[in-house]
Specification:
Layout: H1 2-7, E1 21-22, H2 28-42, E2 48-51, H3 56-61, H4 69-86, E3 93-96, E4 101-105, E5 117-119, H5 124-133, E6 136-137, H6 149-162, E7 171-172
Parallel strand pairs: 1-2, 2-5, 5-6, 6-7
Antiparallel strand pairs: 3-4
Helix pairs in contact: 2-4, 4-5, 5-6
Amino acid sequence: WPLISTLVPVTERVRFFPDVASLPLRPPAMLAKAAASLDVLSGGRVEVGLGAGAFWDAIVAMGGPRRTPGEAVRSVEEAIQAMRLVWSEERSVRFEGEVYTLKGLKPGPHPVHEIGIWVGAGGPRMLDLIGRLADGWVPSMGWATPDRLPEMHARIDGGAARAGRGPDEIRRVYNISGMI
């Protein structure tokens, strides 16, 4: 977020999103408010990238929780729901989940555009969740190797179909790495 906030005022067309914000270290309500603020400042050029957590020893070392795979999936599902409530037109937001709770939160600022929520994850349950709830998928070549992509896309598409969504509703990008 600090890097994005320094780049927003010196650019005009570049779109931004963290790739990805680790939920165990960032409460979704705070992420939603930060994203909405930057969206306002940028004129609608901010999206959100979420991760359930992957480097658990580092997360615990920074004071975050170590989550089981099931807890990690639930945390992303609840975070997506909570963030969308924070961006809503409601006067007061309440959300009661297993991982996250909002108790009378006052929404705002309201984003300039509908902020997309992208998820960087590759497990079967998480891919299904992406198909059901997310706006985009942001895998990395290191763990989502090209040979695995067709199966992973199919799982996202299946989740989308079960939720009554078309596969084309989930945008997809691919993080690649290399050396120059």
